[in-house]
Amino acid sequence: MRNLACLCLSHPLQTYTSWELRKFVSGHLDGYLGQVLDSTLAGENSGKLLGINAKVSVKFSGLAAMIDLYYWTTPNGHKITIFLEEAEIPYTIHPINIGEGDQFQPEFLKISPNNRIPAIADNEPVDGGEPISVFESGAILEYLAEKTGKLLPLEIRDRYEALQWLYWQMGGLGPMLGQNHHFSKYAPEKIPYAIERYVKETSRLYGVLDKRLADREYAAGDYSIADIACYPWIVPYEAQGQNLDDFPNLKRWFEAIQARPAVQRAYAKAQEVNSNNTMSNEAKKVLFGQDKR
């Protein structure tokens, strides 16, 4: 408990976020003191302790999840696990098997009315109120970046450098590469025009990002949610009919992100959730046969 007291005395006016306290407690307190803190911090006045604005739950067996992540092993799903691993936020994965139709369950539709993954529930929002749910991967990345103050610049010019590339991914890179995947790999009949159309558009978009990276390390200068959004869509480049050697700046960027420990942890989690990369005919019917419900 002495270390906790030192933390308070050394920074008496500082506001500690719940995840900062979680990390401190995890590193300095044993299970017994964790239980003591659990009973102390879970009370109605917990928000006043150390200036914390949200309730904190510290469990004997570890840290309780701050974020519930509704997830499947797709590029959009990987975006969120990468961010959570980079920011070291405690989270629990709730697999939503989109090939089996889990995305149509009423409980999931309450937080993701478009029946798409990913979605999150933040159990410790910064206002200290009830949990906040967010769907759409770009909105989730922006929400988590604002919550944590990480991976999105605060200065307005730098901030919009990152945001415009995030939205470029949401509006272009993701949808166009998704169509490439569909017509090249999943469509019941091969349509040469459609395949050529989207393979060429993929190449064009790779070229846009390659040029952007010619004079900077990452899409917005520093590593940010823009890079986290783009990277998972580049991972299956071979299946998209692309060769990274044709895009040297993009290749350098790709390999740098691929080597990040948080990215490697995120993809290891994906293997734990779903190690089967094939798609059955029944799954295709579920995914590609939807109409108004």
Folded structure, characterized:
The protein is an alpha+beta fold. The chain has three domains: 2-62, no CATH class; 67-150, Glutaredoxin (3-Layer(aba) Sandwich), CATH 3.40.30.10; 156-259, Up-down Bundle (Glutathione S-transferase Yfyf (Class Pi), Chain A, domain 2). It has helices spanning 2-10, 18-28, 31-41, 75-87, 106-109, 137-148, 156-186, 192-212, 225-234, 248-258, 261-273, 281-288; strands at residues 58-59, 62-63, 67-71, 91-95, 119-122, 132-135. The strands form two sheets. A four-stranded mixed sheet has the order 4-3-5-6, covered by helices on one side. Strands 1-2 form a two-stranded antiparallel sheet. The protein is globular and about 55 Å long.
Distinctive features:
single chain; 293 residues; alpha+beta; Glutaredoxin; Glutathione S-transferase Yfyf (Class Pi), Chain A, domain 2; 4-stranded mixed beta sheet; two-stranded antiparallel ribbon
Percentage of residues in DSSP E strands: 5-15%
Total of helices? 12
In CATH terms, what is the fold-level topology of the largest domain?
A: Glutathione S-transferase Yfyf (Class Pi), Chain A, domain 2
**CATH architectural grouping of the largest domain:** Up-down Bundle
Q: Please summarize the sheet with the most strands.
A: 4 strands, mixed
Overall CATH class of the largest domain = Mainly Alpha
Domain module tally: 3
The shape, in one word, is globular
Strand order of the largest sheet: 4-3-5-6
SSE order, one letter for each helix or strand:
HHHEEEHEHEEHHHHHHH
**What would you call the structural class?**
alpha+beta
Number of strands: 6
For the record, give the distance between the C-alpha atoms at the N and C termini, rounded to a whole number.
56 Å
User: What would the average pLDDT be, to the nearest integer?
Assistant: 83
Report the radius of gyration as a whole number of Å.
21 Å
Catalogue the unreliable spans.
Answer: 1-16, 28-62
